[in-house]
């Protein structure tokens, strides 16, 4: 039994909708349903009455929810205590960020920030989008960095969680070049030779971005799944080895594009622009965080 199954169950109990709960949990509806079924198999009873609309908890589900709320509350409280004890003392920052952001954006951003506000001890926790959100919501970080697309918003209450746009990035299809410096794998591919696709997992944020892009493409690409991972760094390494084509954030391959080690596998119609945002909990009234936030807002305003 996995904790995420319990979190899925509580989300379903709150939303009373498989589709809305799945969207909140950043997972496909089919994957979400499988996880609820796995939980029911572990418990040994049906927890959801699927014959009603909206779906409601069965008596077993109501009993299980009471225990689930209590267990998760104790786990989260204990985790918060442990993480607080592990924090850097004094004026410092605990930052949650996606792996790509932590690797390709934050080092230069922190260096630039130090020029304006002085040296700040910072701990960066690379994680996925869902866990980053949990860290922010549970008060386990002061700042959370995440990508944003208007059609794939994060489910955060804007009245409580403020954001500032700190950058822009582009997901673009990349390939190793051939001897003529053209892409070895060029979109859209052919029915006879579909392109080997190095893909993100469907539940990852970039996986959802690529699905959005391909779903509205005027010409459907002809791809065959070759490898799959939820980390852009893994996809990049496989592309560098000539294993196929992958949509990669431009920030992660800027040097390789400049040096000609990688080339775009198609024109800009295959690109997807995304914002890079930093979020904070507005209820955190730390003078240090307030001052830092004012600086970030001013920088964002000046860059417009």
From TrEMBL:
It holds the Pfam family HTH_1. The lineage of its organism: Bacteria, Pseudomonadati, Pseudomonadota, Betaproteobacteria, Burkholderiales. It comes from Paraburkholderia tropica. Belongs to the LysR transcriptional regulatory family. Residues 1-58 form the HTH lysR-type domain. It comes from the Bacteria. Keywords: DNA-binding, Transcription, Transcription regulation. This is LysR family transcriptional regulator. One of its GO terms (molecular function) is transcription cis-regulatory region binding. PANTHER family: HTH-TYPE TRANSCRIPTIONAL REGULATOR (PTHR30126), HTH-TYPE TRANSCRIPTIONAL REGULATOR YJIE (PTHR30126:SF2).
């Amino acid at each position: 039994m996995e904790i995420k199954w319990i979190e899925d169950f509580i989300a379903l109990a709150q939303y009373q909708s498989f589709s809305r709960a799945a969207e909140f949990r950043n997972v496909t509806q089919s994957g979400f349903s499988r996880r609820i079924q796995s939980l029911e198999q572990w418990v040994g009873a049906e927890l959801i009455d699927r014959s009603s609309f909206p779906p409601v908890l069965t008596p077993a589900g109501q009993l299980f929810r009471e225990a689930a709320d209590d267990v998760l509350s104790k786990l989260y409280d204990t985790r918060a205590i442990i993480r607080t004890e592990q924090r850097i003392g004094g004026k410092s920052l605990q930052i949650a960020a996606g792996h790509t952001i932590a690797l390709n954006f934050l080092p230069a951003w922190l260096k630039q920030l130090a020029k304006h506000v002085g040296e700040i001890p910072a701990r960066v926790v690379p994680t996925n989008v869902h866990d980053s959100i949990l860290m922010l919501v549970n008060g386990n970080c002061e700042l959370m960095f995440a990508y944003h697309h208007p059609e794939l918003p994060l489910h955060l209450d804007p009245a409580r969680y403020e954001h500032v746009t700190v950058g822009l990035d582009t997901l673009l299809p990349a390939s190793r070049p051939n001897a003529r410096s053209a892409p070895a794998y060029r979109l859209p591919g052919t029915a006879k030779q579909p392109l080997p696709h190095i893909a993100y997992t469907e539940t990852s944020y970039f996986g959802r971005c690529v699905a959005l892009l391909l779903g509205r493409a005027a010409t459907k690409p002809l791809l065959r799944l070759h490898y799959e991972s939820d980390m852009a760094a893994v996809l990049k390494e496989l592309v560098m080895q000539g294993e196929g084509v992958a949509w990669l954030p431009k920030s992660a391959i800027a040097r390789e594009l400049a040096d000609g080690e990688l080339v775009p596998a198609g024109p800009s119609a295959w690109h997807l622009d995304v914002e890079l945002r930093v979020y904070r909990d507005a209820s955190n009234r730390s003078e240090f965080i307030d001052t830092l936030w004012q600086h970030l807002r001013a920088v964002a305003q000046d860059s417009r």
